[in-house]
Amino acid sequence: MARVWQQPFLNVFRHFKVDEWKRSSKEGDVAVVTDKTLKCTVYRVRGPVSAGNYIQLPKTSTQSLGLTGRYLYVLFRPLAAKHFVIHLDLCTEDSQVIRVSFSNFFKEFKSTATWLQFPFICETGTPRKGVGSPGARWTCLQLDLHDILLVYLNRRYNHLKSIRLCASLLVRNLYTSDLCFDPAVTVAEARHAKLPITPIPREMAFPLSKGESWHDHYVHIRFPSDSSKTPSEAFQKSCSPSEAVLAGPVPRLLPHPAAFSKPVQDSLALMVQKHGPTASRQAPSVPRPLPEVSMSSEHSDVSSVGRPSGRSQEPLAWVEPTDKHVASDSLHVSVHQTTMEPTTPEDASPQESLGRKQNQQEVALGNNRFQQRSFLPDPVLRLKGVIGFGGHSTKWALWTRDGAAVVYPCHAVIVVLCVNTREQRLFLGHTDKVSTLALDGSGSLLASAQARPHSMLRLWDFQTGECLSLFQSPVHTVCSLSFSDSGEVLCGVGKDRHGRMTVVVWGTAQVGRGGEAVILTKVHSDVDIQAFEVAFFDETRMASCGRGSVRLWRLRGGGLRSCPVDLGEHHALEFTDLAFRQAQDSHTLYVCSRSGHILEIDHQHMSVRRARCLLPTQTPGGPLPQKQTFSSGPGIAISSLSVSQAKCAVGSEDGYLRLWALDFSSVLLEAEHEGPISSVRISPDGLRVLSTTSSGHLGFLDILSQEYSMLVRSHAAPVLALATECSRGQLATVSQDHTVRIWDLATLQQLYDFASLEEAPCAVAFHPTQPTFFCGFSSGAVRSFSLETTEILVEHRCHRGAITSLAASPNGSFLFSSCSRGSLAQYHSGVPRCRILRVAANVVCQEACPSPSALVVSGDSRLLAFVGPSKYTVTVMDTTSLDELLRVDISTLDLAGSRLDSAVAVCFGPAPPGHLLVSTSSNMVAVLDATSGRLVREPPTGPSRCGTTQHRPALAARCTSATQSLCGPWLSPLASSSSLVWETPSFSGTFWPPLRSPLREVSKALPGPPQPAKLAWVQDSWRTWCPGPMVFPGSRCPCHPRCPHPGWTSVPGPPRTMMVRAGVLGGPGGDVRLAPILTCFAAPGLGEGQGHGCALFPRLTVSPPSSGAFSMSDESRGPEGLRQASGLPVLVQKEAGRAGDGARGVKGSPWDLGRPLHPRGWPSGLRTDPDAPGRQGMVTYRANGEPKAPVGPDACSTGRARAQPPTRPDSYRHFTARYKASLLAKGLSFPAVGDERLHLKAVMGYNGNGRANLVWRPDTGFFAYTCGRLVVVEDLHSGVQQHWLGHTEEISTLALSHDAQVLASASGRSSTASRCQIRVWDVPGGSCRQLLSHHDTAVQALAFSPDDRLLVTLGDYGDRTLALWSTATYELVSSTCLPEPVHSVAFNPWDAGELACVGQGGVTLWLLQQRGGDVSLQVHQEPIPEEVGGCELTSLCYGTTPLLYCGSNAGQVCVWDVCASRCFLAWEADDGEIGVLLCSGARLVSGSNTRRLRLWAVGAVPELRRKGSGARSSSVIMEHELTLDGAVVSAVFHESMDMGVVGTTAGTLWYISWAEGTSTRLISGHRSKVNEVVFSPSESHCATCSDDGSVRVWSVASMELLIQFQVLSQSCLCLSWSPPSCERPEQQRVAAGYSDGTLRLFSIPRIAMELKMHPHLAALTAIAFSADGQTILSGDKDGLVAVSHPRTGMTFRVLSDHRGAPICTIQSTRREYGDFGAEGVDLWLAASGDQQVSVWASNWLQDCCELVDWLSFPAPALTEVPGCLPPSLTAFCPWDEALLVCAGLGVHHEVVFYSLRQKQVMEKIPLPFLAMSMSLSPGAHLMAIGFSERVLRLVDCASGAVQDFAGHDDSVHLCRFAPSARLLFTAAHNEILVWEVTGH
Which of 1089, 1391, 1763, 1826 is a plausible cystine mate for 1813, CB 3.0–4.6 Å? Predict the structure, then answer.
């Protein structure tokens, strides 16, 4: 009854009368305020110190609240940019008080026996429109107090004792309850929707206006998220509909810092898990309704209430998660972002930034999916110059050391401009805007950082322009860099992801000498930093200034410390810049402020010496201001200053550069600028002052001549259009800054600047013959300007909309203009003042974006082409009469497309032959005959066309420009306010043939991220303009010379035609980039029609002129007409996926779509008649497996020739073998059958890297899975394993026949074989029945037909082959090349002649027909309905006939009627990609990469099929849901679907029971490399450690996992079990060493961490207990050996004898060794990686340690060791205490036995390879040695006999005999093999 008064919930503040402060207390700044959001009073707790400002309940610590509710609801809001702390004191059933704390101040999860600390992280993002700022959101924090204590401390919760709410936060109330409320659902909503959830009471609810979403205004966090989940899964956010697209700061409760930035990655958190055979997790069993996604795109009224997870139901062009850890174990609060453009640097998490920003240029250039081609010269493009100034800001411009050049950024390019000659030298490599620059004192080292987070830094050799080092900064965006004078210290300043100011110091002394920049220290600062500089006189001293602070810094002892300067009355100023005086006798620091003050600071005494202020003064009535003087009062804002020995230059926001004498007595010079000055720099000789302005101007003031010279000008806004003039070499640009500028292409200097304040210029065109140009404006006006008089000649206003394009005829007779309302105007421009001739309305497409290529005129001035009247048509008119000559329907060109094609841009090719090139929305360029309008060449089909059957309209919208003009060799892509000028080596020749080519984004070939661009294509008699960085196939990008460009498609044909391709280039502002002339050659002798339908050549090359014959590759055949290339080189290419027989296939689609349906739903045109027209595209095999000749003119080629496999699809369903540097060995001594000394007993682990690599037959009990290259068959009752060995590489997938008599397994291609292995096993006998080989790269899936007569094998994305095998003879029946990657395949269980596969294009249905001995495949594909969205289908399974369920990468499940070939139902089944689908009867199981496994009731789906497109998904109910430890990759279930086995990427096999709602761990293994195996003294247990940070304790008898200790974000590298001398069970401990230098001591009986030590600064690599267990010896990678007490944690001795090389081995033993020449109790050894071994005698109780012996071995030759040196393996010989056994040491491959008594080598045993691991048996004289060649060797040291054993999938890097010598444990990466030793 004591708990009844607390039901159903308790208002804590009301019950304890907080407003009276009698039963509660407050301290510090606690006040009652009214919150506008909640419209009620709340308590505000704020203050700088959390411990001094709080609310506490109850009033004293001796009292208790006595609240027994399981859940505590905290309704609060953190104050922005402030820390808060919440302390809870919980009382357990054994009266133990546990403090649980939550704070955004904590960096990591920490746990002790009485205290749990959880970090509360608020991630930032860009909030959606209409959504409140996430930082101001109220949060409902729901804490499950019962589970917190149970999961983390294994204690029982009794009651809540006390609460303390510390600053800084707003709190409304606290509630306790035993009920789990959903705060987003009210009582009325739950009743109306009949939801099986508990709505929140009205008293606890947040206010919400009608029609608004709760999650748009508030945040709900439930911690832990599920009542009975393990710690690794317990931290997930309460699901809500809007959170799937929310992009704002959302709080996260993090028990470990897996998703933190680098400053926090050094912290650790411990999680302890106890496992057993009955360990299980309860799943919610209440059915929940589903959101509705119907084919009519209607939305359910209740879809946003109570559903498990949400997704936006609107089609999105780009949906990208803010947190890339959506499917990782470390996810706690999933925040997604919906946006059309990439987020700003501040919005991206570090992991996202690394995932999404990893060198975008290299990713793009390496994305050549289908073809590998080359072109000469290489590179074609060379960046010549840049127009414009400014990177991330306009602040950074530096003088070189000699003062002859200026260094500044322009977008992502660093420019070195010679002041006298105006020549430019360019540094290319950055992929985003450069945010800061720094030069060292000698001028030899340049540092630069780019803006996007995390900021990437580059160190350059300034003289050569070579990038010496590329590394990532731990801060979000580096805003300032400063070098020391020596260049050995580099300091950077910026803010981390939490908004804290961070100072990072790098050591750069080794840069340029083969080393890298090293972080010396990193500190966080609470003060604002605007400027930071290293003192020139001492590289350990720095200074910084910012808002209200000037600080002096010092680097000492590896740390950076700072102290503030006493500013006195100036403490409130905002300081903007600082400079040290360049004099050796004085250390004066000058600091300027935004209020006009300049302070002189004594650097040594840290005090202000003088303060002056710059005041605005003006004589009354005077027109100009007088010279400024310093006094008190409000002053002019100073943005920058620079100090020389005698002068001080000051730049202010009023636009003046002033040069003062150093005593500030008078102004020497001043210069007025057009905008606020952002920075000033005095040259090293003190004779020039460099200044930059915020408007993008860069210039310098010459002090001697008192003249100001402008170096660079820029547009202040994005550039909209451009035009070129050939005869005068001029470029015209128009920009959103309302200016038209004329540039000289030779000098890149601005010639004219025309400004329009009221109207924005939109288009521009030069007159071909007169010194005039035309400009169109947003008002519809068209004006003609004279370049001689700079006046407006004439103005016309015949348009009502904004001008979209201008085009002048090459002969100068006519000018044409178009506007946004579709009108077209013709002008007579032959006279200086042009006049209007005709105006036509509704002619030009009104939907087109403004583009220079909206109108184009042919080279002979006879034809005018434009897009219109609609976007689906292109019209050609006569330029004189505007008579319509031709209208082409573009929508009919792409017959294979799923949507109508529209024209984007047009361009005339050079005449003759007079082709019209049209860019389309499907990213294609169609080449049309300008006279007849016919397509010059049929479009290629198959893989050569494009990678997918769907194209992104968003990309096509960017590829909008290609204009023609008579000009020189320049191309101008527009993207920002700057310009890039490209140049190419000149050579002459003919042009490419006509073609139809796919468009691809080529933006990443240029510096900077992709942004909309405008391109110009200009040609003259010899040269052709091409858009963007049009580097030809196989050529190099000028910015990344080693990266090939994306692929192209082209074929030989008639000459004199150039292929044009639009691209997306540049940055967000508007770069104008000029590309060079580009010319290529075609083979002679090919007439107009000869190129049509001819084959693609095997390689794209440009051969030199030769009279010799052109020989074809054996891989393909060329056109018969091509026999000899006389004089001109030949342009040829190799097409991926073809054998060279031509671009052939089924017309209309690579899958033969669009044919009438057969009565059973199959295309009637696909028949077995060889002469039938529908036979095209079919591959037929004879009974013996040999392919027949392709039938028909368009038969599909089945050759194996491929150029380069396509890029891996963005689907986790595809298997990718783990990278292994090891190679298979040859010529080994494998033992005869029956003579083996080792028998493989067990395998620990499951290969989570495989796909569908698990089979289980419940009726027979057969259970098999894979681990590496082994097939493991295990008896689930006894645990006995069988191991089928035969594969040489990692197994990718398994398949079991329906009669369970045959098992098929597939592995990847090995170094010794050209094809993948498919092995067919006899299940009863366990032997390999057949070995098949057909696929090139990897096998994606295997499946047996329902009658087990056929086996289908599916190649991965690189192979793209589907093969059918007969199980009777295992001969190849059929093989088909797929035009695109396919993700999964399945047979129809109700019809053995049907199978289906899913991929990028949709669902592909296959029909098998057999006539005699021939088997043919008929194929039909159905695309994904537009209503479902632009997703890919990734998984499938058949349901009740005729239903086919397909899962997508967007989390949807689509249901298809295979008879009608239509999709009639779809619903949102998950938030991530669905990789596994299983269906039986009325139940469906789905598994995804979000770790969720869900059970669905689909019994109503067959009835919904009759409703067709009107079907709704409300009848599909989710029955159960489980969250596992990784993405689901394999699953097998009983026919009833009540139980099954599921495999995850974490390497775990789970037994699933839906009836009980539990998941039980069957098989578990490490995720990463296993580093050590140790045994308990009794050998009952063993412990392993891994790079995944876990220490796992196993039962040796059953090989079951018992205990797991987890440290996050660190690797556990070494392990040691306490020795037998500490045999008492309560003292059994395991010591573990980690990569951060920490050493942890774990108690096995208590299942807890006892002690954490930090004896090393570097990673621990070896650890050992002393013989008595009272001392721990540990070694690190720097070669230091530390000696520590395990009881106190004190390190009392450090040995540095091995400094400089990592410690590989430490071993300690108790010996009597007086005869060794040393006294002591312990004998121990240490071996380091430099081939040194030391042996020591020690008595640690007496602090005695003496060297016994030191061994040095010569290092092996580097050529013999791939990668790095092998470990130095050394051990005491167990059967002779005076012997040392060494391996891996010395030049030769051998094992050395060294006598400590005789000081000499006693024996040598040769080895075939370098040893990677070694272990000596404590029993018989046996030695186990592991090699990197995946071989384990057992050596009998007594007889010399050797035996080799295979079975490992990688290098055998670990061998350990058990203490009893009966077992041997070996490890290869993460797989552990347990061998039984016989005859010991």
Answer: 1826
Q: What are phi and psi of 1731, to 5 degrees?
A: 65, 35
3-class SS at 997?
Answer: strand
- Cβ-in-10-Å burial (0-12, 13-18, 19+) of 1238 comes to buried
Q: Are 1100 and 1078 in contact (CB under 8 A)?
A: no
Backbone angles phi, psi at 974, to 5 degrees: -100, 130
As averages over each run of 10 residues, the pLDDT of the chain (1880 residues) reads 73 90 91 90 90 91 90 92 91 91 88 88 48 65 92 90 93 93 80 75 88 87 63 35 33 39 34 38 38 34 36 33 34 33 36 38 37 50 82 82 90 90 89 89 90 81 89 86 90 86 90 84 89 89 91 88 88 89 72 90 84 71 44 71 89 90 86 89 90 89 89 86 85 89 86 85 90 91 88 89 91 91 90 86 79 82 90 90 88 69 84 79 84 69 35 34 40 50 39 32 39 40 31 32 32 27 32 31 33 30 30 32 31 31 35 36 34 33 37 36 59 81 69 85 91 91 92 89 91 93 90 83 92 90 93 90 91 88 92 89 86 76 82 92 92 90 89 93 93 92 77 82 93 93 93 91 90 92 93 91 91 92 69 94 91 93 90 94 91 91 90 63 88 89 86 67 67 88 85 89 89 90 91 90 89 92 92 87
Distance CA 682, CA 645 (A): 10
Helix (H) or strand (E) holding 1504: helix 1501-1505
CA angle 825, 830, 831 (to 5 degrees): 105
Query: DSSP of 393-453, one letter per residue?
Result: SS---EE-TTSSEEEEEETTEEEEEETTT--EEEE---SS-EEEEEE-TTS-EEEEEESSS
From the CB of residue 658, how many other CB atoms can be counted at a distance below 10 Å? 24
CA nearest neighbour of 1614 among 1764, 1767, 1731, 1737: 1767
Least Cα distance to 1329 among 1268, 1290, 1271, 1286 occurs for 1286
Enumerate the β-bridge partners of residue 480. Answer: 493
Rounded distance, CA 936 to CA 1323, Å?
Answer: 60
SS (H, E, C) 873-925: EEEEEECCCCCEEEEEEHHHCCCCCCCCCCEEEEEECCCCCCEEEEEECCCEE
Buried residues in 1489-1511 as b, exposed as e (16+ CB within 10 A):
bbbbbbbbbbebbbebbeeeeeb
Closest CA to 330 of 1378, 1399, 1491, 1686: 1491
Residue 1776, classified by CB atoms within 10 Å of its CB into exposed (0-12), middle (13-18) or buried (19+), is middle
Q: What are phi and psi of 684, to 5 degrees?
A: -60, -30
Q: List % helix, strand, coil for the chain (3-state, nearest 5).
A: 5, 40, 55
Q: Taking the CA of residue 835 as centre, how many other CA atoms within 13 Å lie in the half-sphere pointing to its CB?
A: 2
* Distance of alpha carbon 1224 from alpha carbon 1828, whole angstroms: 9
Give yes or no for a contact between 65 and 88, defined as CB atoms under 8 angstroms apart.
no
The Cα 1780–Cα 1799 span in angstroms is 10
In angstroms, the CA 1612 to CA 1586 distance is: 5
923 φ, ψ (degrees, to nearest 5): 65, 40
The predicted model scores a pTM of: 0.47
Beta strand 924-929 pairing with 424-427: unpaired
1109-1112 CB contacts, 8 Å cutoff, 24+ apart: 1112/1140
1186 Cβ contact partners less than 8 Å away, ≥ 6 residues apart: none
List Cα–Cα distances, 895 to 937, 1146, 1148, 1432, in angstroms.
14, 12, 5, 21
- Show Cβ contacts of residue 481 under 8 Å, excluding neighbours closer than 6 positions: 436, 437, 438, 447, 448, 449, 457, 490, 491, 492, 493
> CA quadruple 1207, 1211, 1215, 1218: dihedral positive or negative?
positive
**In DSSP terms, which residues pair with 599 in a beta bridge?**
591, 611
Yes or no: say if 1074 and 972 are a contact pair by the CB < 8 Å rule.
yes
